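Worked example 3 (structure in, sequence out).
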């Protein structure tokens, strides 16, 4: 097969992975600010159209349309038009490409052209135009390439980027998308990795720039120099408590300047982008993140002077939000339940902002090679130096996968017998084999690990064994690390340690297990560190002898005199819903479907703020402003639990479960709305009962 290849004149690229495509050009006296151009073709299919320019940066033309006017899929580059005396050659019949056009577009930024970013659409590798291109898929900052079907008699394209999961043009296969999906400009965070790393391969063959560790100065020029060189601490009590014979060590990543392991990759991504000419003074950094990468990027942006926008799901703690705001970052929250590939997800919203804001960049921790490289070059080297090269097991949680991938690659090179243990929360799909991920849980409270997609930078083949962890064990172990070892760590640190005490049972005396503790308790003061939050979530049981509880504490929620529930269908307009709420005197109402299934809540305040901000119109359906982050309570729960909820939230949705049988004989549980309870309802009940008690 022969494909179109985009090249720059200064590079004269001939990729060894494809059949040779002949490209020729001629220089002439500039006319109207442009040099004359000449097309070159081989005798079977179109090769490429290149034009030497004063900047020596090649230009390309859309070979699929040969239009005299800029087609809609070109962005910021004027296509080269055929001369009037020339007509499009017969080499471009639409039948040759199965009715599909090869669409390519390049974006030229205001940066110097010799520092322009080139991005491989297949593997995500970034190159500057001064480097020798190594990839046939080099294009501008974004590319859209429909499938180029193989035809009889065409040669096979032997490109190293191809795999069974890729179409002939190198783009990962996926289901045919709808028109709105085609219009989205984004790069998936789960593109299969095409990294060429292999165990035993010489480091000199690496295409990446590696950074050697430097000695820490006595006086640091800025706080960014306090990233890395974190302490390795012996765990004394917990190992004995669980009967471990090996030495248990904790790599305390919360000693980094921003308080987490993500400071390492944030600084590395920023510095690499600056070195490659991608980031320039005054540019904007945008990043979808669970919070810690955002804090690291905001820290770097504050020191270096960049604008920073962080997009994060609603479930992330308010402490993270407060820290980000203090660092000057702008914050956008997205629904926790949104799939990663939906436009409403933190990934989708980040790409929309990137397309709307000039000179903005998504450093993209999910695909950026700087993510695992930061740990390969620094974290792993520190562990080896601190352990004198003797490590028998590494236990690390997996989120983007950069930490476990970078550390595992270096440890596999230096300590081949070292076991790599991966930690994945229940509700995530990162673990292997796939059967481990079968669970009824779709959400989890622990932050910073787990995803509903496989990030590009995660190399799961390096992990010797995966363990699943749950919220209750994670938070209990995190509190144990704080109480028994004095390590002020976060919830995902508890996840890693709860797995380590299981996995390390196979190690013998004299062997060593290192556990990565990713972040600090600072981000979770109102969550797992709070007894009421733990009780409310069901992770702790109240002890009756601890507190003198009031008489009503153990009464059931069903004792409350709740009125018949008011609900609305998702098709009701915002205007009508506001009218209903005002008429009935309610501040919130559940939204249910025709069968009574709970879809979410809408509040009067949320609707009014959305209308005033112009996010919705009065005629829009109420489904556009559904709020899914609310607390539920069952009829058999006690009023004490309800009081804990109402200390934090304005209301709770009272639900009861219904077993529904289907035509095939199978049954399923559905949660139905029984009512909405507020603090006023609880207070009215208690005061009314108090009067009756006194009267008797």
């Amino acid at each position: 097969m022969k494909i179109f290849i985009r090249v720059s004149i200064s590079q004269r690229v001939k990729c060894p992975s494809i059949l040779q495509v002949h490209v020729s050009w001629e220089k002439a006296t500039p006319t109207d600010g442009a040099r004359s151009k000449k097309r070159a073709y081989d005798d079977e299919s179109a090769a490429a159209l290149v034009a030497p320019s004063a900047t020596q940066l090649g230009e390309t033309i859309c070979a699929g349309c040969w239009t005299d006017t800029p087609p809609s899929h070109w962005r910021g580059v004027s296509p080269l038009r055929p001369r009037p005396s020339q007509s499009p050659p017969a080499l471009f019949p639409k039948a040759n490409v199965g009715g599909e056009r090869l669409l390519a577009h390049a974006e030229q930024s205001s940066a110097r052209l010799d520092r322009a970013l080139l991005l491989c659409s297949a593997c995500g590798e970034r190159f500057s135009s001064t480097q020798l291109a190594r990839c046939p898929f080099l294009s501008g900052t974004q590319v859209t390439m429909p499938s180029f079907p193989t035809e009889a008699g065409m040669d096979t394209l032997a490109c190293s980027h191809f795999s069974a999961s890729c179409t002939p043009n190198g783009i990962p296969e996926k289901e045919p998308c709808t028109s709105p999906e085609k219009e989205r400009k984004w790069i998936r965070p789960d593109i299969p990795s095409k990294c060429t790393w292999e165990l035993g391969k010489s480091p000199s063959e690496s295409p990446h720039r590696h950074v050697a560790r430097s000695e820490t100065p006595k006086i640091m020029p800025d706080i960014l120099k306090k990233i890395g060189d974190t302490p390795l601490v012996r765990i004394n009590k917990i190992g004995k408590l669980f009967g471990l014979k090996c030495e248990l060590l904790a790599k305390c990543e919360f000693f980094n300047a921003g308080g987490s392991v993500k400071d390492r990759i944030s600084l590395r991504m920023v510095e690499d982008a600056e070195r490659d000419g991608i980031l320039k003074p005054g540019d904007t950094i945008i990043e979808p993140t669970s919070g810690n990468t955002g804090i690291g990027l905001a820290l770097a942006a504050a020191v270096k002077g960049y604008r920073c926008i962080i997009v994060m799901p609603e479930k992330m703690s308010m402490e993270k939000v407060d820290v980000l705001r203090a660092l000057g970052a702008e914050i956008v929250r997205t629904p926790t339940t949104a799939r990663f590939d939906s436009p409403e997800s933190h990934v989708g919203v980040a790409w929309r902002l990137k397309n709307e804001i000039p000179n903005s960049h998504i450093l993209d921790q999910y695909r950026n090679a700087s993510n695992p490289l930061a740990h390969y070059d620094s974290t792993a080297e520190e562990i080896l130096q601190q352990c004198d090269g003797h490590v028998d097991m590494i236990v690390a949680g997996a989120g983007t996968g950069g930490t476990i991938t970078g550390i595992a690659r270096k440890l596999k090179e230096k300590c081949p017998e070292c076991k790599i243990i991966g930690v994945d929360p229940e509700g995530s799909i990162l673990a292997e084999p796939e059967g481990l991920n079968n669970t009824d849980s779709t959400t989890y409270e622990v932050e910073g690990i787990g995803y509903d997609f496989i990030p590009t930078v995660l190399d799961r083949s390096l992990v010797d064994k995966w363990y699943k962890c749950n919220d209750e064990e994670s938070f209990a172990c995190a509190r144990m690390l704080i109480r028994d070892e004095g390590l002020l760590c976060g919830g995902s640190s508890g996840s890693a340690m709860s797995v380590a005490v299981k996995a390390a049972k196979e190690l013998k005396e004299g062997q060593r297990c290192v556990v990565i503790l990713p972040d600090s308790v600072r981000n979770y003061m109102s969550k797992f560190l709070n007894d009421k939050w733990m009780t409310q979530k069901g992770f702790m049981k109240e002890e009756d002898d601890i507190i003198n509880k009031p008489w009503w504490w153990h009464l059931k929620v069903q004792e409350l005199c709740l009125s018949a529930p008011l609900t609305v269908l998702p098709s009701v307009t915002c205007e009508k819903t506001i009218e209903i709420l005002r008429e009935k005197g309610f501040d919130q109402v559940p939204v249910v479907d025709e069968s009574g299934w709970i879809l979410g809540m809408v509040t009067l305040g949320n609707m009014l703020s959305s209308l005033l901000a112009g996010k919705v119109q009065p005629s829009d359906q109420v489904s556009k402003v559904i709020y899914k982050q609310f607390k539920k309570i069952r009829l058999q729960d006690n009023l004490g639990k309800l009081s804990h909820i109402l200390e934090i939230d304005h209301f709770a949705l009272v639900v009861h479960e219904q077993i529904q049988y289907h035509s095939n004989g199978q049954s399923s549980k559905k949660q139905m709305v029984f009512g909405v309870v507020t603090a006023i309802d609880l207070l009215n009940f208690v005061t009314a009962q108090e009067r009756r008690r006194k009267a008797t």
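Notes: The first helix runs from residue 179 to 183. Residues 51 and 58 are 6 Å apart (CA to CA).
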